């Protein structure tokens, strides 16, 4: 029988979080049938062997070299058999009934192309799990402006959004067949889910966040090991998004806003005598000028 939900999990040397993640997927899902894929992204910590021993029902794809978020998930999106397809980070913990509720919401709302879960920090506080589509001038002031959605009051009912976090998002199979998979131009990571949601919205589908489906997301466990590179990717991939969907003028506006914003922060951290932040923003300013 066709499973209700195919879950795609990518992991690279993150076994200490991956195993609890998989355990939560199976123990906290009760009413929907699952097909779970793990893409072992060239791990060196025995990931594939540990998962095979603890969760023999998980289908494992092994990479001999590191590949990006889109490339890895696309392998699962193209071969998964579920009625719905889910991207789930390995640094998450599914809370009781979350996946059941996501599937039931999609069954009850045929106009929904995508639904994202409510994401929680490790201490139980709310995490940003959705966003508006970026504007080049506003986005140039990231991350200060990105905190504005956190001011919204928690909602008790599902609500429509522009895009949801790729840490935990469910996509209707028909959407993938119509719109296509993730754009690998955004590899290794960042902005691929925004681009995907943008294409899905343009195709006429609606995108929702479901507060009742709660998933803990510990966040950036891999990319926090290389902070300067992380920020370079964040900035350059937003630029790629604007170039793809809004043209060269939007890219120039974004770049100008980034330079002003980063220079202002560099000046502040210089005055504050924080050498680490000063060094980071100095590095980013040089990188932005070269983009």
Characterise the protein shown here.
α1 (15-27) links the parallel β1 and β2. It is built from ten helices and twelve strands. It has two domains: 5-222, Spore Coat Polysaccharide Biosynthesis Protein SpsA, Chain A; 224-290, no CATH class. Residues 221-226 have low confidence and may be disordered. The longest helix is centred in the C-terminal third of the chain and has 24 residues, at 248-271. The chain is of the alpha/beta class. Strands 1, 2, 3, 4, 5, 6, 7, 9, 11 and 12 form a ten-stranded mixed beta sheet that branches. A two-stranded antiparallel ribbon has the order 8-10. It starts with a strand and ends with a helix.
Largest sheet: 10 strands, mixed
Q: What is the strand tally?
A: 12
Strand content: 15-25%
Residue runs with pLDDT of under 50 for 5 or more positions: 221-226
Q: What's the rounded overall pLDDT mean?
A: 89
The N- and C-terminal alpha carbons lie at a distance of 50 Å
Q: What name does CATH use for the topology of the largest domain? A: Spore Coat Polysaccharide Biosynthesis Protein SpsA, Chain A
Note the overall shape.
globular
Q: Count the DSSP helices.
A: 10
Global structural class: alpha/beta
Q: Helix amount, in percent?
A: 40-55%
What does the radius of gyration come to? 19 Å
CATH architecture of the largest domain: Alpha-Beta Complex
- The CATH class name of the largest domain reads Alpha Beta
Return the string of H and E elements: EHEHEHEEHEEEHEEEHHEHHH
Number of domains: 2
Q: What would CATH call the homologous superfamily of the largest domain?
A: Spore Coat Polysaccharide Biosynthesis Protein SpsA, Chain A
